[in-house]
Each structure stands twice: as C-alpha cells, then as structure tokens.
Amino acid sequence: MSLARDASTSPTWFESSVRALEAAYSEHPLLPAPTLAFDLTALLNGERLLPIAPPGQESVREAMRGYEDHVLARLTSDRRWTRLTEAVAGLPKELRAAAVGLVTAQLLSRLKLNTGTGVSTGVVRRFATKSADEVIEVGRAALYDAALAARIVEGLNALAKAARRTRELLSDAEVFLLENLAALKGLGARVALAQLAEVAQAVVERLPARLRGQVFEDGDAPSSLEEDSAYPVGGFSSISTQGSLENLVTSELIYMEEGDDPAARPDLFDVRFVEGELLYYARDESVAVRKRRTLVLVFDPSLQRSRVKDPGETYQRLMWLLGSVTALVRKLSEWLNTEALHFELIFSGEGDEGALAEEEGVISLLLREYRERGQVEVRRVESTLGAVRQAREQHRGRARVMLFATRLPSGLEGNAAPDALIDADGLRPKVHWIDATQESAEPFATAAEAWTATTKQLLDGLLKRR
C-alpha cells in the first residue's frame, strides 16, 4: 500500500525504505506497523504521499484514510517536522535509513504500540531482493484475503486511535537523536539521549511560562560586538574639533569658496582644516553593560547510586535529575535572555572515564546549542570539594553554586558550603538551601511532578536571592 502511492512504475524510495525497515526492526524487534517505516522514508526524504484507494474491501480503504488523517497528516504538520527533515538531509547518505528506523521505533514507543509480529531481519533482506513492481502486485492480491485484510484494518485502526489520544506525535527526542546520530555510536547512547530529551521536555512543559520574583545579580558584563544592535549606545553627545569627515558638522561647508579655480585656494575651509578648527559631532563611546549571572552546577560521584528506577517509573532517577538541569538551563536562558547568563556544569571524578562519564557526554550533546554560543561550559575536575572551592574563589563569591549529590561530602561546611544541596537519594529529591531554612519537597504521585516541583524550588530560590 505504501509503495502504491508512487505514480511511477518503479517507486524511487523502495530500496531505502527496505533498509529503513531493517533498521526499525533492529531497534524494535516487535514492530507493529512496518508500513509506517515506508511512509516515513518517503516523507523525511522530501517526497509527497498522495492518498490512495487500495484494492480489496471497503474496510481497508476506511482504515487507510483514518491512518493518513490522524498519523501522517499530523506528523507533517507538527512544528518539529521541519527540523526533523533538515536533520535527515544533513546526515551522511549511509545513515539516513537508520535515522528513519530510529524515528519509527521512537514514534511507536510514544504511541505505546510495543507489541506486534516479530519479523527476522533476514526476511526483510529477502524481501529487498524482489523488484518494487513485484511487491506491489503481490500486495494487491493479498488485500483480497479476508483474514489478512482484517489484520491490516486492526493495525491501521490501532495506529489512528493511539495517535488521537496522544497530544504530540513528535518530541525533542527525535530531533536531538537525528541531529547527533553520527556521534551516537551505540544503542545505549541513543537510548540515553532520547530519554534525557523526553524527561527535559516533560519538566519544561510543567514549569511556568513567565518569570516571577527578583533576579540575583553578580555584577556587570560588557556586551559583545554582535549584540550592539540589541544594546544601542554611542549616539552623538557633543561637538569636538577632532573627528572624521563622516561626522563633520554640515554648517562648516559654508566656509568653502564657490568655483573650481585652483588659484582661489586655499579658502577659509582649508585654513580651518589645517588649523584644526573644523567642528565635528562627537560620539558617546561608552560600553553597554548587562547584568552578569553565573550559575555553577556540580555533580558529585555519589549520584551513581541514582541509576535506579523507582517502582512504576519509566526513567532512572539520574535521568530525571539531568533532565531537570536541562530544563533549568532552558528556562533561565529564556527568562533572562537580556542578561550575561553563564552556566558551568562540573562533573567530579578523575579522568575521562570517571564517574558519570556517559551522562556527561549525553548532556553535552543535549546542550550543544548553548555550548556553541558560549553560554554553557561542561568540564570535569578531580574532586567535588575542589570544584566548589574553585568556583567560590574564581567568581569571588558572586556565582551561585549548587551541588547535586546523595550526601554532602566532608569539607564542604561553613564558608565552603554550596548555596544549595540537591539530595537525589530516596524516592523523591530534596532541596537544602545551606544558608537559609531547610526546604524539602512534598510527596508526589510521580517522579515528573516531584522533579518539576524541585526545579521550581530551585528557580524560585535563584530568582529571589541576591
């Protein structure tokens, strides 16, 4: 049915569709909707899918129309679809089939269609040896089989029904996966990035849309050159006897003599120029400044204990913690977009293979946009104690320092203590403001609610403290 959409005798995307189907079965062995892999291959490669009237029973036609309306039409109208197609276009040719397979598996997982008929990848390879025309003819004949048609109708109706009860078919997870597919070598890295993107999006959606409270201030920072238009300075403020001809006071031109006779020179204009008496507009060369905000987030090796799932939860505690940090960075960057905001994410542990090394790599990919514009810095140090003390000394006490751990390491008491300790141990996180009253998160039904409340608590504490 998918191949029959092409009006030509040989569908142009048959070979790539089969490779995408093979990749989808590798990611999702019980793939319930192989036709989705064929349709996404065409759509993500810029092809148009025209509605078709498949042969066979009327029930198949109705199910196909519902699938096209509720699944394919919603996908192409999603606000993330353009970024998704651009990400596929930017991938090497050999990775595009795998990208479509990943998107198919992610979409079916979001629709909670996790059970289907398992198909060996060897069967898919044998299927690829046939010509597209042969596949179409065999498929059209099979649609007249009543039992097979009933199964097809059931599968398409299940897809349409699942899509109707799902608010958004696509998420940031698919976009980040495809944008970083070349850097994600293994299945574990892809799963971690997808989960972290989904968790971050879940927390962001539950946070307030507007800024509240007072913001903390850590001093002033000069505007960079590319931001001069956003922070206009340097208008004409006075008149001076020094300057460029572009800033010459126009009334000085009255000292020029009329005519082009060289014998009449020098005129009074020339004399005033030589004597330095011409008047120029002078600019105010002051530098625009913005409020500087620095936030240091330190991740203690004890967070390895948070690599567990609580009963009834889909993601690990550590994924919720890193997703909340991502949401914190996004919200503060959105709310304080006119300020010189800088984040330092510090992971403690020796060497590149130290504690939380995989999580460090994943969150670096997720925050790549902020790192490229210099707003976020991700680095590793040897010890948590040294990281907190260095942040205090380097920023002279002006930066806000938050420590994520399951316990407060020894030596971080008194003046060396962080501003906040986020305890990720136990079923629900707790926030302790060291130099203020202790605050604990209330019990919540789900981890999403608990970590959203924790992120709100951190934002409120940051924006109200000076």
Description:
This protein has helices spanning 14-27, 34-44, 58-77, 81-89, 96-110, 121-128, 132-142, 146-164, 172-179, 187-206, 268-275, 317-335, 357-366, 368-372, 384-394, 447-464, and strands at residues 220-222, 236-240, 280-283, 289-299, 340-348, 376-381, 400-405, 420-423, 430-433, 438-439. It has 466 residues and is α/β, with parallel strands linked by helices. The chain folds into 3 domains: 3-183, no CATH class; 205-221 and 290-464; 234-283, no CATH class. The protein is flat. The N and C termini lie far apart (63 Å).
Please give the domain count. Answer: 3
Structural class: alpha/beta
The chain-level mean pLDDT equals 78
Helix content: 40-55%
Query: Beta-strand level of the residues, as a percent range?
Result: 5-15%
Uncertain spans, ≥5 residues at pLDDT below 50?
Answer: 6-10, 225-232
Secondary-structure map with pairings?
Blueprint: H1 14-27, H2 34-44, H3 58-77, H4 81-89, H5 96-110, H6 121-128, H7 132-142, H8 146-164, H9 172-179, H10 187-206, E1 220-222, E2 236-240, H11 268-275, E3 280-283, E4 289-299, H12 317-335, E5 340-348, H13 357-366, H14 368-372, E6 376-381, H15 384-394, E7 400-405, E8 420-423, E9 430-433, E10 438-439, H16 447-464
Parallel strand pairs: 4-5, 4-7, 5-6, 7-8
Antiparallel strand pairs: 1-4, 2-3, 8-9, 9-10
